[in-house]
């Protein structure tokens, strides 16, 4: 009788342990895919601008071309999400697309300048967005594996870009919910078509764009430190955009 009770208790304990492990994995999955956006220091661009100084703490690079259909943005460029503004500029040049990049210039803690996409309301960007048909937004995400998360409301354009990136050997996955770019308040979805594409590029991929895997300002500001992979990435995005645009 005692052996039966011990056996029963053993299996009961094992069952409880397995249940706890499965519950932990489930809640970890839910947390990662439903993780809320970071708490920003500034709630909008007006507040940031009143508390900082342009050209000292940050700068805006904006370019318009004869092609008003496509706008490429990097609203967390410079030291905020390093590598994003550099990539956006190359895409803009390759595709002859309009460009807007907001670049953090602080020596440290550029994350302070981060304003989430649903609240980034620089009037210059809003005007450029309103005058475009499509927006492609370049972001960086703190992810150690090599991955590009792709989201946004324009599913056809996202699919076209994904196809070209995968041809170049880049690992592309569907964005987790908290960075999926589907919100109507997201600046990329405020154009004529009400849709855009958001690319979230992992830390490891962005490091691989530069010599010595360095994301320092000194490295990023010298194009001789750029690796072929950043140009391959830009070419793939450009090709994906143009392929889908020509279908419309």
From TrEMBL:
The chain crosses the membrane at residues 9-31. Pfam families: Gamma_PGA_hydro. InterPro entries: Gamma_PGA_hydro, Gamma_PGA_hydro_sf. Keywords: Membrane, Transmembrane, Transmembrane helix. This is Phage-related replication protein. It comes from Staphylococcus caeli.
């Amino acid at each position: 009788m005692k052996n039966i009770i011990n056996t029963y208790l053993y299996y009961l304990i094992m069952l409880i342990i397995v249940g706890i492990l499965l519950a932990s994995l489930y809640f970890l999955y839910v947390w990662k895919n439903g993780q809320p956006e970071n708490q920003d220091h500034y709630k909008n661009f007006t507040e940031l601008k009143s508390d900082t100084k342009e050209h000292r703490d940050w700068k805006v690079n904006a370019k318009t071309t004869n092609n008003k259909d496509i706008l490429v943005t990097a609203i967390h460029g410079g030291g905020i999400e390093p590598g994003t503004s550099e990539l956006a500029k190359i895409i803009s040049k390759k595709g002859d697309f309009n460009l807007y990049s907001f670049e953090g210039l602080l020596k440290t803690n550029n994350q302070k300048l981060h304003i989430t996409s649903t609240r980034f309301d620089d009037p210059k960007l809003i005007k450029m967005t309103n005058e475009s048909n499509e927006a492609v937004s370049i972001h960086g995400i703190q992810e150690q594996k090599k991955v590009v998360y792709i989201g946004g409301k324009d599913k056809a354009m996202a699919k076209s870009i994904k196809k070209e990136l995968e041809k170049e050997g880049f690992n592309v996955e569907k964005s987790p919910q908290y960075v999926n770019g589907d919100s109507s308040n997201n600046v990329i979805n405020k154009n004529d078509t009400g849709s855009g594409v958001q690319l979230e590029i992992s830390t490891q991929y962005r490091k691989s764009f530069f010599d010595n895997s360095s994301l320092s300002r000194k490295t990023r500001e010298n194009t001789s430190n750029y690796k072929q992979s950043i140009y391959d990435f830009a070419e793939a995005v450009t090709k994906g955009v143009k392929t889908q645009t020509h279908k419309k």
